[in-house]
Amino acid sequence: MDGRDVVVDQVVVHRNGRLILDGVSAAFRPGAITAVCGPSGSGKTSLLRLINRLDVPTSGAVRYGGVDVAGLDVRELRRRVGMIFQRPTPFPGTVRANLRQGAERSDTDYARVLEQVALTASMLDRDTADLSGGELQRVCLARTLTTEPEALLMDEPTSSLDPDAARVVEDAARALAGAGMTIVWVTHDLQQRDRIADDVFAVGDAQ
Amino acid sequence: MITWVGLAVSVLLVVVAAGLSAALGLRIERDIVVAALRMAVQLAVVGGLLTLVVSPHRTIWWSWLWVVLMVGYAADVTARRSPAVPGLRWVSLAAFGAASVVTLGVIFGLRVFPVNGRTVVPIAGMMVGNSMTATVLAGRRVVEEIADKREQVEARLALGHDTAAVCRPYVRAALRSALLPQIEKTKAIGIVFLPGAMTGLILAGVSPAEAVRVQAVVMFLVLAAAATTTVVVAVGVARRLFTADLRLADTVPRPAQ
Fold it and tell me: Per the domain annotation, does A1 fall within a domain?
């Protein structure tokens, strides 16, 4: 078992009397992008939220590096397993102020993470209110990368982006997986799945 | 001084209000009359009790007991005005308690007013009564801020922030909203309107200079009380919107999926 393996074991999620996930099991390996596919409402987002502990399962367990995440310090877990949301979630202020919310680092370090998402250090003083959707999502990705995560949960991160911006995010994710990161990427776009995925996990089929 | 006849004549003003409602078809004549009657009865009871409490022969502890009951009642009213805000009763009890300690501590501890039955209850009453609106607003706004910006809040949680760091920008925004009306009101005093305590003192024959000094103290008191209660309520309510393991509580509405 690698220290960066994410394993979902027989998880069940009930919310407001509705069954969201019914006994789902999956394993996500390091150094690969696993595409999580499934129809709308099949629980793809819910699955990611369990791994980051933004939600807890009704039953079953999520393990990271062989340890039940319920037993890990939640803040430590979230810094080791970063999450990118479907819509960009910039905070008010400049790009630098956003990156600081991830971690206090030097501008040189910020330039390096911006480069990982195909942005440049000249962006640091720009206000997030002036950025395009594609730029915002990449800033959010860079913000998460400042915490130096070992795994990345990406919830349809390109669904609100144009094709060119989507490709940039895909390339960034490919490079991160190439560097050994565990990447779980939710998508309903089959072409995107074929472009990016090393492994595929279909939520609806597995239940 | 107001005579009983004068008081009876002033009831004509209630008739004017009810008459306007009837003439315009507002159908709130009954509410106006009931409100006026209720106010008169409540004031009569309070006046009677105050007469007992302010008597120089009475121990000051009766006044302090009155303050404690007032704080409890204010916390209850605040909670009932915002039933959707979780745990507001206890948080606002802590808030009004803290505001009482801070403001009455300064006013009476530093001898701005002497401690006696004539000062304790009215000063505490103005402090609690005037900070209630801001307190209710702070509780509501912090819930609205965090629910409206749920995605941002969860992005902060996902970065490994603790509750205090996650809440900070939303608590700040809620506090600004809650305190701005009181700040605006304070700015407008003397220009746009003459406040109640000062007007009452002048009507009672106190010199305007002295009435102004009393009013200034009251306004400082109300500002400090509103600032204290809103901070305690905003921080206290914000904490209750998160679970112990740093997730948003189920009481925070989720977006439709």
Answer: no
pLDDT at A207: 46
Q: What is the CATH number of the domain that holds A108?
A: 3.40.50.300
> Under a CB-based contact definition with an 8 Å cutoff, are residues A24 and A206 in contact?
yes
What pLDDT shows up at residue A205?
55
Alpha carbons A35 and B209: distance in angstroms, whole number: 76
Give the chain A residue nearest B162 (alpha carbons).
A75
Domain residue ranges of chain B, discontinuous segments joined by +: 1-53, 59-240
Residue A160 lies in a domain: yes
Beta sheet of A199-202, edge-to-edge order: A81-84, A151-155, A182-186, A33-37, A199-202
In angstroms, the separation between the Cα of residue A171 and the nearest Cα of chain B is: 22
pLDDT tens-digit profile of B123-132? 999 899 889 9
Residue reference for tokens 């407008």: B188
Q: Chain B within 8 Å of A83 (Cβ-Cβ)?
A: yes
From chain A residues 151-170, the ones with a CB under 8 A of any chain B CB are: none
CB pairs under 8 A between A and B: 55
How many CA atoms within 13 Å lie on the side-chain side of A197?
20
Output the six-digit token pair for B179.
């305190």
Q: At what angle do helices B208-240 and B117-148 cross, to 10 degrees?
A: 40
Looking at this predicted complex, what is its ipTM?
A: 0.93
CB-CB under 8 Å, A41 with B257: yes
Asked whether the predicted pLDDT for residue B253 surpasses 90, the reply is: no
Note down the domain range covering A157.
Answer: 6-206
d(C-alpha A54, C-alpha A153), whole Å: 12
Residue the block writes with tokens 């390091």: A30
Residue of B nearest to A46 (CA): B257
Minimal Cβ distance to A54: which of B154, B161, B162? B154
- Could you tell me if residue A95 is inside a domain? yes
CB-nearest partner of A78 from B152, B158, B248: B158
Q: How far is CA B43 from CA A74, A76, B18, in A?
A: 55, 58, 21
